[in-house]
Design goal:
mitochondrion (chains A, B), homodimer, 386 residues, globular, Aspartate Aminotransferase, domain 2, Aspartate Aminotransferase, domain 1, Ethanolamine-phosphate phospho-lyase (chains A, B), 12 strands, five-stranded antiparallel beta sheet, alpha+beta, Aminotrans_3 (chains A, B)
């Protein structure tokens, strides 16, 4: 299904034509993904994987509302930001409204990488006394902020991973450090476009003026183009309409609860940390000395791989980045499996019984929305294929 | 039509929320563009402009085949390049096939800016003896190439503006320097995606290995994502199916001929230079001494602005970057004006009578394709709006 080349040929062509720095996941036995819906990805054989690593498909793979918004704008106009257009100002207004009042000036780009460079350049060129990104320990944040601001520094909140409601309780990760804490610069990346290449730096009017007067007139002409902004607006709508922030709390708490039950059983689990759908499992060889259990941490994603998929492993820290609603549910699968028979059984033998299920949550309203969402999508496809 | 905010409000919101380095065209009286089709852009009042500046809408604004390809893939899968996927290898294979054999390894990114940085980093880090971009005078190119290669340097061909058939006779701009000349690195930008944020660096296997072994493992995880590559493939298809390269020769020659007639009449025109649809008009105060007529060059785009639009002015050099088929035709306008009444008359008072028309070219096959193209587009829109 959906294949132009066999997996072997795809691999061979990749070896021939794609730069070697572009490395595949699971290099020993790379995965070929041909389609995805919501929290699932499907390989060329129709095998289904629960996607716990893809931090970009923020509101779910191929969300029909996002696709529809992109299509509508692509048909109408896609041009650079040197013309006046409503989408860029509307999106900037909507983004600003989610942030503390002083964070009101947006710089749009097509890539988080460019945003990082933009900030680095800003730091280097217009405020030479400051350092790079600062991630102080929680609790000390206020004090550090006072100190850094006192020293004429700037605070940068990297929201590429944690922004847009992923931490559940707050829309932005930095808000977890208290109401009083306001960064000077906030960076955002591809999750804001659910995969559409776009990124943004939001800062204060004061810093924007400093940036401007520094003579560094960096400007990505296609950043904030009408299509990217239409997509960004649709993502904000979906987060709101489907209460994905509330869902991150609910599913995140449920997952943390399950993981804590495992922690009670397995001394290998040193800690469960995280918030919302941004959760990590700390694996240790020795609970007292907290020796990193690196080998075990590397083993687990491989073990899960064939059945579940995509746990991200940072040395001894297993990182779960669940992008979607109801990742732990079982019944939702049936919506997807109508199209593609699901060969995946709950992996009872798995070391961490992540999918030990909760029947009560099956009839949640967000699951019903998911059903509706899939129907809408099917309709859109049908219209276009007829 | 298509407006969320009045032009005044859009301007005010832009001032409040968009970084000041993001400057608009014609800042004294910025243009608000709400839709575009093929070579035309339309403002909020329905006023139509011929787009001679937009170097990104390479196969025409909102080309339905490109939109359809993007939609089809957006509905199916859009994820990073760490998974195997056919689109990235197929597109890399197709791009390589248009280039000399040794240019076979692609690095995809979401932004030409990132490509530039990639190359700068490559030069700085893996081949420290070379300089930056080299643009030697035509004719001397071979000798310079021999010299530069002899000194251990690399040649970089920037195809962001001139690639993909824009120069007409050749698919790539560097091919104008002779069959024997093969650059070491070729960079491409957003025209390859007709505006979809994407870019690419293509190089040799040898350089890719040097890059890789330098330890600089730069990799844009979303570069070469399935949607970008589907879009890139559709653009290549359109260039081929609609013979846009042949069209660039035909329309470019026609425009150059008209401009040369003007040159005979106006000593202000020092030279007409260019190839295909990449044409510049050199304005001089004194034909002998070739003193730049800077003020006049700045005046002309303003004068054309209200009727035609978008001549790009580089000091005394007026740069015409015609993105589309039949930019000089008059009859094609009727296809567009069925939807939006065209208020624009041929500007007979214009200093350079660019639109002095050629009735014989009206029934060309590419114009007929344009008509079909617009019909198809209308159908696609209709399906989605019902």
């Amino acid at each position: 299904m959906c294949e132009l080349h066999s997996k072997r040929d795809t691999l061979a062509l990749r070896g021939r034509h794609i730069g070697p720095s572009c490395k595949v996941f699971f290099a020993a036995d790379p995965v070929k993904i041909v389609r995805a819906q919501r929290q699932y990805m499907f390989d060329e054989k129709g095998e289904r994987y629960l996607d716990c690593i893809n931090n970009v498909a923020h509101v779910g793979h191929c969300h029909p509302e996002v696709v529809r918004a992109a299509l509508k704008q692509m048909e109408l106009l896609n041009t650079n930001s040197r013309f006046l257009h409503d989408n860029i100002v509307e999106y900037a207004k909507r983004l600003s409204a989610t942030l503390p009042e002083k964070l009101s000036v947006c710089y749009f780009t097509n890539s988080g990488y460019v945003c990082s460079f933009l900030i680095a350049a800003f730091i280097a060129e217009s405020m030479q006394s400051c350092g790079g990104q600062i991630i102080p320990p929680a609790g000390y944040f206020q004090k550090v902020a006072e100190y850094v601001h006192g020293a004429g520094g700037v605070f940068i909140a990297d929201e590429v991973q944690v922004g847009f409601g992923r931490v559940g309780k707050h829309f932005w990760g930095f808000q977890m450090h208290g109401e009083g804490f306001v960064p000077d610069i906030v960076t955002m990346g591809k999750p804001m476009g659910n995969g559409h290449p776009m990124a943004c730096v939001v800062t204060t009017k004061e810093i924007a003026e400093a940036f401007s007067s520094s003579g560094m007139e960096y400007f990505n002409t296609f950043g904030g183009n009408p299509v990217s902004c239409a997509v960004g607006l649709a993502v904000l709508d979906v987060i709101e309409h489907e209460d994905l922030q509330g869902n991150a709390v609910k599913v995140g708490n449920y997952l943390t609860e399950l993981l804590n039950k495992q922690k009670a059983k397995h001394p290998l689990i040193g800690d469960i940390r995280g918030v919302g759908l941004f959760i990590g499992i700390d694996l240790v060889k020795d609970p007292q000395r907290r020796t990193p259990a690196t080998a075990e941490a590397q083993h687990i994603p491989k073990r899960f791989f064939s059945k579940i998929f995509m746990l991200f492993c940072l040395l001894h820290y297993i990182f779960l980045d669940l992008v979607l609603e109801e990742a732990l549910g079982a019944k939702t699968a049936s919506v997807i499996s109508e199209n593609t028979p699901c060969k995946t059984e709950v992996p009872k033998e798995a070391h961490l019984e992540l999918l030990s299920g909760d029947a009560d949550s099956r009839e949640s309203s967000s699951r019903k929305r998911n059903g509706a969402c899939t129907d809408k999508h099917a309709l859109l496809s049908k219209r276009l294929k007829t």
